[in-house]
Design goal:
Strand order of the largest sheet of chain A: 3-5-4
Distance between the termini of chain B: 50 Å
CATH architecture of the largest domain in chain A: Orthogonal Bundle
Helix content of chain B: 40-55%
Low-confidence stretches of chain A: 1-11, 188-214
Distance between the termini of chain A: 74 Å
Shape of chain A: globular
Number of helices of chain B: 10
Number of domains of chain A: 2
Largest interface: A-B, 58 and 53 residues
Low-confidence stretches of chain B: 1-22
Number of strands of chain A: 5
Strand content of chain B: under 5%
Structural class of chain A: alpha+beta
Shape of chain B: flat
Mean pLDDT of chain A: 79
Number of strands of chain B: 3
CATH class of the largest domain in chain A: Mainly Alpha
Largest sheet of chain B: 3 strands, antiparallel
Oligomer: heterodimer
Chain lengths: 214, 267
């Protein structure tokens, strides 16, 4: 399969050599499985970072075509070969059950605060959540979503927390710049009506009110 | 029970207690008091800002009251919030002092601000959950393991003399480097001070005047001495045999031997 030449236009002709490099990198990513840094590949192959980047772009363009099952995931300065998210249902039908570990509510809240406010101390997190967050932080640390990034220069020199590359990977973010925007204060009540947490409470309240009306 | 009745009547009017209802709300399904308040605000379909002109704070207090058995760790943050709400309510019932400042630092404003910020992050964490869900659909494989073959060494042409020569060369180079670096011989002194000896020394001091920490150590005291005498002082304080005062950070410490009470009487 040939990469469309128009991508490169006049500035750069897609040569046989480049195509071979894209194939080599594909092979490396397949064997490695986990995330690697393109710079490491470039250094090991004695190529420039640009050469590897161009080959990666080409490979990515190839994967974007609809009939390919793979995709290149980028986060931080790492890349990883993954399957396309679109094919998850079919993959799961064949390979059931695939476990998809997800974070609990308190971990997610704590992680969001750390992601936006980093570097941040436990006290600052707890001030926002209004509840002790030690356990949530420790579990995020042990899941390597969060790590200690230093100490705050204040009384007691508390630990400062920040997010990791594992965090970016887990949420499919290329960098922290891709975090969702903080909702405006006026808009945020929209989710309050959904109440996914405690439907049973609402129901008991309503039946109670109904019975009183009766 | 009769003796308690007036209080009960007051508080039931105060909280607008409903008769024991069938509501079972599990506080542990909420991520803390702010989460519960947001839930109540959402259910009342009001703006966060209107929390103090709504029933929400009453509902909150009632729910915490009725929650019953909760372990203290879980419940404390909910109870703290209930206390804050009660304080705000009781303040609102009192006539406002004439020079009540109108700035943003009232407990009401602080709580509203906190609720708004928490609501933002709750919203974000929902969005993050969608990101997480989407990202979890991309599967990757575990790294392949390729055991590396044993490294082979070329050892032909090696003689015993050659080996000895090489060893001498290496040890010579090591010695030269050592001398170049000018590594001085290290001396490790025996400990000359012990906490128990220093404690005895402090107790033996004449007790007419309060002791100064600076007076307990020699003029050119080593770090070891300063630390040990300090530890001895702390140990005496722990054992209740002395107490100390320091007027400000880094000031000299005044040490009083004996129990604190008698010294207070004396002073």
């Amino acid at each position: 399969m040939r990469i469309s030449r128009c991508m490169w236009g006049a500035e750069k002709r897609w040569t046989m050599q480049d195509e071979r490099l894209a194939g080599i990198i594909e092979a490396i990513l397949f064997v490695v499985g986990e995330a690697v840094s393109p710079a490491d590949i470039a250094a090991a192959l004695e190529l420039s970072d640009d050469q590897v980047d161009q080959a990666l772009d080409a490979l990515e363009a190839l994967y974007h075509s609809r009939d390919r099952g793979l995709s290149i995931k980028r986060f931080g300065d790492r890349i990883q070969l993954t399957t396309k998210a679109d094919y998850a249902p079919e993959i799961e039908r064949v390979l059931q059950p695939i476990q998809r570990p997800s974070l609990g509510q308190s971990a997610l809240e704590t992680l969001s605060i750390i992601a936006y406010k980093q570097p941040v101390t436990r006290m600052e997190i707890e001030a926002i959540r209004g509840v002790g967050s030690d356990y949530a932080i420790q579990s995020l640390v042990s899941k390597r979503m969060v790590r200690e990034v230093g100490r705050k220069d204040t009384l007691g020199r508390p630990i400062l927390y920040g997010t990791t590359e594992q965090f970016l990977s887990h949420f499919g973010l290329r960098s922290l710049k891709e975090l969702p925007e903080i909702p405006a204060v006026d808009e945020q009540t929209s989710f309050l009506d959904e109440d996914q947490l405690s439907d049973d409470y609402i129901q008991t309240e309503q039946t109670e009110e109904n019975s009183r009306r009766d | 029970m009769p003796s308690r009745a007036p209080f009960c009547r007051f508080s039931s009017r105060f909280f607008r207690f409903k008769p024991m209802s069938t509501i079972h709300i599990h506080l542990n399904q909420f991520e803390g008091p702010l989460d519960l308040l947001l839930h109540l605000i959402g259910r009342a379909k009001i703006d966060i800002k209107d929390i103090f002109v709504s029933e929400v704070t009453d509902q909150y207090i009632r729910i915490v009251q009725e929650a019953g058995e909760l372990d203290m760790d879980e419940a404390s943050s909910f109870v703290t919030m209930a206390a804050t709400l009660l304080e705000i309510k009781s303040r609102a019932m009192l006539p406002a002092p004439p020079q009540m400042p109108e700035d943003e630092e009232t407990p009401e404003a602080l709580l509203i601000q906190q609720l708004e910020e928490y609501a933002q992050f709750k919203q974000i964490s929902l969005e993050m959950q969608a990101y997480e869900e989407e990202a979890s659909k991309a599967f990757s494989k575990l790294p392949d393991e390729f055991p590396l073959p044993q490294p082979e060494f070329e050892i032909s042409g090696l003689t015993l003399e050659g080996l000895i020569k090489a060893f001498i060369k290496v040890s010579q180079r090591a010695r030269e480097q050592y001398e170049l670096a000018g590594e001085p011989e290290r001396q490790i002194e025996a400990e000359r001070f012990s906490v128990s000896a220093c404690m005895a020394m402090i107790l033996k001091q004449p007790r007419k005047t309060p002791l100064k920490f600076s007076g307990l150590i020699s003029r050119r005291a080593s770090r070891d001495e300063v630390v040990t005498v300090f530890l001895a002082m702390l140990e005496l304080m722990k054992q209740g045999k002395a107490w100390a005062r320091q007027d400000a950070n880094y000031e000299d410490i005044t040490l009083y031997v004996g129990r604190r009470k008698e010294m207070d009487d004396a002073g």
